[in-house]
Amino acid sequence: MTWVKICGITNLEDALVAVEAGADAVGFVFYEKSPRNVSSNIARDIISSLKSKVERVGVFVDEETVRLNEIAVHAGLSGVQTYSEKCSESKAASTPAQPLSRYPVLPIRRLLNEDLSFESFAVSERDEETSEHATALFLDSGTAEQPGGTGKPFDWQAAIHIANCIRDAGWKLVVAGGLTPDNVSQAMGILHPWGVDVSSGVEAKPGKKDPDKVRAFIKAVREADKANSN
Predict the structure, then answer these.
(1) Which of 11, 22, 57, 152 has fewest C-beta within 10 Å?
(2) Known catalytic membership, residue 140
(3) How far is Cα 18 from Cα 200, in angstroms, rounded to an integer?
(4) Domain residues for 83?
(5) Gap between the Cα atoms of 76 and 43, Å rounded
(6) Are 221 and 4 in contact (CB under 8 A)?
(7) Catalytic residue among 14, 24, 87, 140
(8) How far apart are CA 10 and CA 13, in angstroms?
(9) In this predicted structure, what is the pLDDT of residue 128?
(10) Can you tell me the distance from the alpha carbon of 80 to that of 57, in angstroms, rounded to the nearest whole number?
Protein backbone atom coordinates (compact mmCIF):
# COMPACT_ATOMS: atom_id res chain seq x y z
CA MET A 1 0.00 0.00 0.00
CA THR A 2 1.07 3.57 -0.64
CA TRP A 3 2.89 5.26 2.23
CA VAL A 4 0.92 8.30 3.43
CA LYS A 5 2.39 11.21 5.36
CA ILE A 6 0.28 13.97 6.89
CA CYS A 7 2.64 16.90 7.32
CA GLY A 8 2.52 20.23 9.14
CA ILE A 9 1.25 18.79 12.42
CA THR A 10 1.14 21.47 15.13
CA ASN A 11 -1.11 19.95 17.80
CA LEU A 12 -2.02 16.62 19.33
CA GLU A 13 -5.60 16.65 18.06
CA ASP A 14 -4.47 16.75 14.43
CA ALA A 15 -1.86 14.07 15.04
CA LEU A 16 -4.44 11.74 16.56
CA VAL A 17 -6.83 12.33 13.65
CA ALA A 18 -4.08 11.42 11.18
CA VAL A 19 -3.17 8.27 13.08
CA GLU A 20 -6.80 7.21 13.49
CA ALA A 21 -7.42 7.75 9.77
CA GLY A 22 -4.54 5.41 8.90
CA ALA A 23 -1.57 7.66 8.13
CA ASP A 24 1.81 5.94 8.01
CA ALA A 25 3.69 9.07 9.06
CA VAL A 26 3.13 12.50 10.57
CA GLY A 27 5.38 15.45 9.85
CA PHE A 28 6.63 18.31 12.02
CA VAL A 29 8.05 21.44 10.40
CA PHE A 30 11.14 22.96 12.01
CA TYR A 31 11.41 26.02 9.78
CA GLU A 32 10.77 29.41 11.34
CA LYS A 33 9.36 31.00 8.19
CA SER A 34 6.60 28.39 7.90
CA PRO A 35 3.13 29.01 9.42
CA ARG A 36 3.32 25.36 10.46
CA ASN A 37 6.57 25.76 12.37
CA VAL A 38 6.73 24.04 15.77
CA SER A 39 9.35 23.94 18.48
CA SER A 40 11.12 20.73 19.38
CA ASN A 41 9.35 20.87 22.75
CA ILE A 42 5.91 20.97 21.16
CA ALA A 43 6.82 18.15 18.79
CA ARG A 44 8.18 16.11 21.69
CA ASP A 45 4.97 16.57 23.69
CA ILE A 46 2.84 15.47 20.74
CA ILE A 47 5.07 12.52 19.88
CA SER A 48 5.19 11.31 23.48
CA SER A 49 1.38 11.10 23.44
CA LEU A 50 1.23 8.95 20.31
CA LYS A 51 0.87 5.27 21.13
CA SER A 52 0.98 4.20 17.50
CA LYS A 53 4.12 3.13 15.66
CA VAL A 54 3.45 5.86 13.11
CA GLU A 55 6.61 7.42 11.66
CA ARG A 56 7.53 10.82 13.09
CA VAL A 57 9.28 12.91 10.47
CA GLY A 58 10.93 16.27 11.04
CA VAL A 59 11.05 18.70 8.12
CA PHE A 60 14.17 20.89 7.88
CA VAL A 61 15.35 23.64 5.53
CA ASP A 62 19.07 24.47 5.28
CA GLU A 63 19.69 23.02 8.73
CA GLU A 64 23.12 22.01 9.96
CA THR A 65 23.47 18.28 10.58
CA VAL A 66 24.49 18.77 14.21
CA ARG A 67 21.42 20.85 14.98
CA LEU A 68 19.17 18.55 12.97
CA ASN A 69 20.25 15.53 14.98
CA GLU A 70 19.90 17.40 18.26
CA ILE A 71 16.28 18.20 17.43
CA ALA A 72 15.65 14.64 16.29
CA VAL A 73 16.91 13.28 19.60
CA HIS A 74 15.05 15.82 21.71
CA ALA A 75 11.72 15.50 19.91
CA GLY A 76 11.85 11.74 19.38
CA LEU A 77 11.82 11.78 15.59
CA SER A 78 12.15 8.61 13.55
CA GLY A 79 12.98 10.36 10.28
CA VAL A 80 14.06 13.65 8.70
CA GLN A 81 12.94 15.34 5.49
CA THR A 82 15.54 17.80 4.22
CA TYR A 83 14.85 20.67 1.82
CA SER A 84 18.50 21.46 1.35
CA GLU A 85 21.64 20.37 -0.40
CA LYS A 86 23.68 22.48 2.00
CA CYS A 87 23.50 20.46 5.23
CA SER A 88 26.85 20.17 6.93
CA GLU A 89 28.46 16.76 6.92
CA SER A 90 30.04 17.27 10.35
CA LYS A 91 29.43 14.59 12.93
CA ALA A 92 26.43 15.10 15.16
CA ALA A 93 26.97 15.98 18.79
CA SER A 94 24.14 13.62 19.71
CA THR A 95 22.96 10.62 17.75
CA PRO A 96 19.45 9.15 17.72
CA ALA A 97 19.14 5.84 19.52
CA GLN A 98 17.72 4.37 16.31
CA PRO A 99 18.91 5.23 12.79
CA LEU A 100 16.80 7.97 11.23
CA SER A 101 14.91 7.46 8.00
CA ARG A 102 16.21 9.99 5.47
CA TYR A 103 13.93 11.77 3.03
CA PRO A 104 15.84 14.26 0.83
CA VAL A 105 13.69 16.54 -1.33
CA LEU A 106 14.45 17.11 -5.00
CA PRO A 107 13.42 20.59 -6.24
CA ILE A 108 11.20 19.77 -9.20
CA ARG A 109 11.48 23.38 -10.42
CA ARG A 110 15.15 22.79 -11.23
CA LEU A 111 14.54 19.53 -13.01
CA LEU A 112 11.68 20.84 -15.15
CA ASN A 113 12.10 24.61 -15.52
CA GLU A 114 15.85 24.72 -16.06
CA ASP A 115 15.98 21.77 -18.45
CA LEU A 116 18.24 19.88 -16.06
CA SER A 117 17.93 16.13 -16.48
CA PHE A 118 17.52 13.95 -13.44
CA GLU A 119 20.68 12.06 -14.36
CA SER A 120 22.86 15.17 -14.31
CA PHE A 121 21.21 16.44 -11.14
CA ALA A 122 21.76 13.12 -9.37
CA VAL A 123 25.41 13.00 -10.37
CA SER A 124 26.15 16.60 -9.39
CA GLU A 125 24.21 16.62 -6.14
CA ARG A 126 24.72 13.08 -4.91
CA ASP A 127 26.03 12.92 -1.35
CA GLU A 128 25.50 10.96 1.85
CA GLU A 129 21.96 12.32 2.21
CA THR A 130 20.74 11.76 -1.34
CA SER A 131 22.16 8.40 -2.30
CA GLU A 132 22.51 5.07 -0.59
CA HIS A 133 21.39 6.36 2.81
CA ALA A 134 18.11 7.79 1.53
CA THR A 135 14.94 5.97 2.54
CA ALA A 136 13.05 7.67 -0.29
CA LEU A 137 13.33 10.78 -2.45
CA PHE A 138 10.62 13.46 -2.45
CA LEU A 139 9.54 15.39 -5.52
CA ASP A 140 7.97 18.64 -4.35
CA SER A 141 6.65 21.81 -5.97
CA GLY A 142 8.27 24.26 -3.57
CA THR A 143 10.06 27.43 -4.58
CA ALA A 144 13.31 28.97 -3.36
CA GLU A 145 11.26 31.37 -1.24
CA GLN A 146 8.77 28.72 -0.04
CA PRO A 147 10.45 25.29 0.01
CA GLY A 148 7.20 23.46 0.81
CA GLY A 149 3.57 23.93 1.68
CA THR A 150 2.78 25.90 -1.48
CA GLY A 151 -0.49 24.08 -2.10
CA LYS A 152 0.36 23.96 -5.80
CA PRO A 153 0.94 20.72 -7.72
CA PHE A 154 3.72 20.42 -10.28
CA ASP A 155 3.26 19.07 -13.78
CA TRP A 156 2.92 15.34 -13.13
CA GLN A 157 2.93 14.39 -16.80
CA ALA A 158 6.18 16.28 -17.38
CA ALA A 159 7.72 14.55 -14.37
CA ILE A 160 7.08 10.97 -15.56
CA HIS A 161 10.61 10.63 -16.89
CA ILE A 162 12.08 11.89 -13.62
CA ALA A 163 9.93 9.48 -11.60
CA ASN A 164 11.05 6.59 -13.80
CA CYS A 165 14.71 7.57 -13.36
CA ILE A 166 14.31 7.65 -9.58
CA ARG A 167 12.83 4.15 -9.57
CA ASP A 168 15.37 2.84 -12.09
CA ALA A 169 18.12 4.08 -9.76
CA GLY A 170 16.64 1.92 -7.00
CA TRP A 171 15.08 4.70 -4.92
CA LYS A 172 11.54 5.01 -3.61
CA LEU A 173 9.56 8.02 -4.80
CA VAL A 174 7.30 10.23 -2.69
CA VAL A 175 5.13 12.85 -4.41
CA ALA A 176 4.36 16.07 -2.54
CA GLY A 177 3.04 19.52 -3.34
CA GLY A 178 -0.55 20.51 -4.00
CA LEU A 179 -2.09 17.12 -3.30
CA THR A 180 -5.72 17.03 -2.13
CA PRO A 181 -8.39 14.37 -1.58
CA ASP A 182 -9.65 15.22 -5.08
CA ASN A 183 -6.42 14.91 -7.06
CA VAL A 184 -4.21 12.43 -5.20
CA SER A 185 -5.53 9.44 -7.13
CA GLN A 186 -4.68 11.20 -10.41
CA ALA A 187 -1.12 11.88 -9.23
CA MET A 188 -0.76 8.25 -8.17
CA GLY A 189 -2.05 7.02 -11.52
CA ILE A 190 0.47 9.12 -13.43
CA LEU A 191 3.63 8.85 -11.30
CA HIS A 192 3.04 5.56 -9.41
CA PRO A 193 4.84 6.73 -6.26
CA TRP A 194 5.81 4.65 -3.26
CA GLY A 195 4.39 7.40 -1.06
CA VAL A 196 2.43 10.66 -0.99
CA ASP A 197 2.77 13.65 1.32
CA VAL A 198 0.12 16.27 2.09
CA SER A 199 -0.09 19.36 4.27
CA SER A 200 -2.07 22.35 3.03
CA GLY A 201 -4.41 20.11 1.03
CA VAL A 202 -6.01 18.80 4.23
CA GLU A 203 -6.05 22.01 6.26
CA ALA A 204 -8.85 24.20 7.58
CA LYS A 205 -6.25 26.98 7.78
CA PRO A 206 -2.43 27.05 7.85
CA GLY A 207 -1.30 24.94 10.78
CA LYS A 208 -4.74 23.45 11.56
CA LYS A 209 -6.01 20.30 9.90
CA ASP A 210 -9.56 19.63 8.74
CA PRO A 211 -10.38 16.14 10.11
CA ASP A 212 -12.80 15.40 7.27
CA LYS A 213 -10.18 16.31 4.66
CA VAL A 214 -7.55 14.16 6.38
CA ARG A 215 -9.88 11.16 6.36
CA ALA A 216 -10.96 11.85 2.79
CA PHE A 217 -7.35 12.07 1.61
CA ILE A 218 -6.32 8.75 3.12
CA LYS A 219 -9.53 7.12 1.89
CA ALA A 220 -8.79 8.34 -1.63
CA VAL A 221 -5.26 6.89 -1.46
CA ARG A 222 -6.53 3.51 -0.28
CA GLU A 223 -9.20 3.42 -2.96
CA ALA A 224 -6.56 4.22 -5.57
CA ASP A 225 -4.40 1.42 -4.16
CA LYS A 226 -7.26 -1.03 -4.64
CA ALA A 227 -7.99 0.20 -8.16
CA ASN A 228 -4.33 -0.02 -9.17
CA SER A 229 -3.98 -3.56 -7.80
CA ASN A 230 -6.81 -4.88 -10.00
Answers:
(1) 152
(2) yes
(3) 14
(4) 3-229
(5) 8
(6) yes
(7) 140
(8) 9
(9) 44
(10) 5
